[in-house]
Amino acid sequence: MKTTALIMAGGRGERFWPRSRKSSPKQFLSLTDSDRTMIQNTVDRIRKLVDIRDIFVATNQEYRSLVREQLPDLPEENILCEPMPKSTAPCIGWGAVTVRKRYGDAMMLVLPSDHLIMQQHLFRSVLKNAMQAAERTDALVTLGIAPSTPDTGYGYIQYDQERDTGLPNTFRVKRFVEKPNLETARQYLASGEYLWNSGMFIWKASAILREIENQLPEHYRCLTAIEAADGTPAAAEAVQKGFREMQAISIDYGVMERAEHVYVIPSSFGWDDVGSWLAVERMNPANDLGNVIKGDVVTVDSTRCIVQGDSRTIAMVGLEDMIIVDTKDALLVCAKDSAGKIKKVLEVLRAVNRTELL
Amino acid sequence: MKTTALIMAGGRGERFWPRSRKSSPKQFLSLTDSDRTMIQNTVDRIRKLVDIRDIFVATNQEYRSLVREQLPDLPEENILCEPMPKSTAPCIGWGAVTVRKRYGDAMMLVLPSDHLIMQQHLFRSVLKNAMQAAERTDALVTLGIAPSTPDTGYGYIQYDQERDTGLPNTFRVKRFVEKPNLETARQYLASGEYLWNSGMFIWKASAILREIENQLPEHYRCLTAIEAADGTPAAAEAVQKGFREMQAISIDYGVMERAEHVYVIPSSFGWDDVGSWLAVERMNPANDLGNVIKGDVVTVDSTRCIVQGDSRTIAMVGLEDMIIVDTKDALLVCAKDSAGKIKKVLEVLRAVNRTELL
Lengths: 358, 358
What we know:
Two copies of one chain form a homodimer.
Chain A: E1 3-8, H1 38-44, E2 55-60, H2 64-70, E3 79-82, H3 88-103, E4 107-112, E5 116-117, H4 120-137, E6 140-145, E7 156-160, E8 171-177, H5 182-191, E9 194-204, H6 205-215, H7 217-229, H8 235-245, H9 251-254, E10 262-267, E11 271-272, H10 278-283, E12 292-294, E13 297-300, E14 306-308, E15 313-317, E16 322-326, E17 330-335, H11 342-351
Helix pairs in contact in A: 3-6, 3-7, 6-7, 7-8
């Protein structure tokens, strides 16, 4: 069966301000020493499994030129620009009907464009495993990450380790749960029954469309209208209309939580969702003084800091657990334990109409 | 008797890096909302007592053009450029022989160029008081600041409150003491017998030269050679030779500590020696959130910070007691309690030959 991929690249990446901006969010940046951006790495790591002509990128009009620039080999018609943000179910549905229209049916790898994966080889091996399961069973398959900490920033997947599915390393999902509080996260971790929800899915286009038809019939109606117009002069108008009509709903909440046949593959291929500046510390080696530094930095009595310099020299004196991010027009200085509040800066800038900094 | 002033403006101001640089130290900057720089304010506040033609500025060749630029009314021949740094005694001695050569004798106000004085009127009234004492007694008069905290950053002056000098508000100095440790500083403060050494002196040129002759005879010999050449084509060469020969020694250690007739006037005119970035907090009002901010700054959950912005927007998230100073080519992020370590940054930059940043 043909293998396709749908790469989700519509995010705004606000938590990486000031390096990520509305005009150039996280997936189009490199946050490691790599010259390749996150979306380029995402494509690179599946090139051995999927032909570039069968890779689709879901994004929005604003990022079309960035996608073309960073993925010059990708056929332009494979860039799906959502007219407005409607969360993941409409976007994934559009990808699925596009695949159905073009290929009849095909395997789909649905992948975020802004995650880090350290062990590429292992990752591809897990994907192959997942594709076999999805092909043999018509099920929806998701990758669950073996948790290392009681992280409250992820959704969790409870799975059934007892019942044999007859498929290698593949388990039935009991339920999806939203981001827990710390106490609950600790229980999940201790129980050994939970995995982090990675947001990566593997299924046949026909399988996910069947579930959407069952659970989100209104969405399915809009999606078939988009499918019918695909390749005709009315295509753009149909997408516009379809997205206007579809309600915003996530694939997890709208489909996965209530779907019949959902499998999870417990995985550990060095995954990070790169959810905040703190991820930079996990992704890059610290120096002898415990700082993760990029750029021209002078350190005096400072430790456990994350610094992303730009063109200027940065001097740190007596700092601990700080994040410093410098850019041409904006500078962030943030305590590590306040990394979650960076979006408040954007709220302030929005309120005073400083759009050039967003 | 004619009144002259000698303004000491040779300092490097390293503790205000990165705003102060070797090429433009603290006395040539404004650290408040004032448009006037510190040296301009120093001159402004004595203009009612001293004619600009009788004000001398002691600095070095590197800062000559800054002095001319910032004090355009000052006669160029009143800029005394020390060929090399030799601490304060040689510099003050040079000022004194220059005054003697030009005026025979005159009152001298010796003032640092980089101190803050809040109550100008009171300051001038203290200076008048000091000039009367210096004129009537031929003594060396210094201004002592009534201490408000057991500060270990200042030298102290112990004075004799019992013995009547017959001069208003003027007391005999018992001894000068160097910067004490905290325990000693606390004892000084509790005793009520000590004042901070402000480094401001009032005396007749003849009086300080008499003391230099007695206590630093080799210096006096060099100074008279400089005096003899003053106004002749050999002047520059004589200054060069004299400074090469004179040992570096401070006026406090070399003269004041052992001088015969030294008086102090206890003063409180809102004085600050502006010794580090922490002074910016004392000199400028804090906003409602407890931050002292200059520039385009977005604050989220941050307090008690000192921020000096430049052209870029600065966002602070979750910070307490931090100093952030932004300039075109260098940024400082420093914990307040590490402000004394900023000079270590300069040591590092010097070691790696980054002279453009010094």
